[in-house]
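Collaborator request, handled under Task 6.
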Amino acid sequence: MTKTNVNEKSNNVAAKAAVAQKESKTKKKTQDDIVVLASGIRVRYRPVGANAIREAQARIPDAVVPTFTDPNTGKEQPNPAHPAYAAEQKEIDALRTTAAMDVLMLLGIELVDPMPEDASWLDSFVFLKLISAEDAKFAQDSPIALELYYKKYVVADANVITQLGQLAGVTQEMIAEARDSFPSNT
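Structure tokens returned to the collaborator:
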């Protein structure tokens, strides 16, 4: 047998062994990975790829850097120290954190039991001004948006946010920032 054939055979054997191991672990996971939250809702946590988070955050554009006319040259120069720019960028950073958490909740939480068929629970969040009436209407027309709002406002608490962040490899500072900004914790 040539060296190339041995390498190909070794790679095949290794790949088959890895697949078999993964399949056996997947089969073992049944009730073991179900978590019962303090609310009584049963979930499974799923890892979320970093690219999904990055791509959601990248959809939010940076603030436009203001410019000023340099009196010495008469040319426009960027002015990233402008207070309005700093404030806008801070808002954008908060939106990106929210986008990351939304991706984590939507993809990182699997509901074991179905959501309530009646979406009247949205009314409470409209009343509390956590979501707008338009957003509630949109959620009722979009199963994915409805699932996100359910996970975001009913399922997720500080412990869920921490668990999702740890699964995604998010830093403790980012987790604390997200947890502190969460509606149930304000």
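The cover message to the collaborator said: "The beta strands are 34-36, 42-45, 67-69, 76-78, 109-111. The chain has a mean pLDDT of 84. Please let us know whether this matches your experimental observations."
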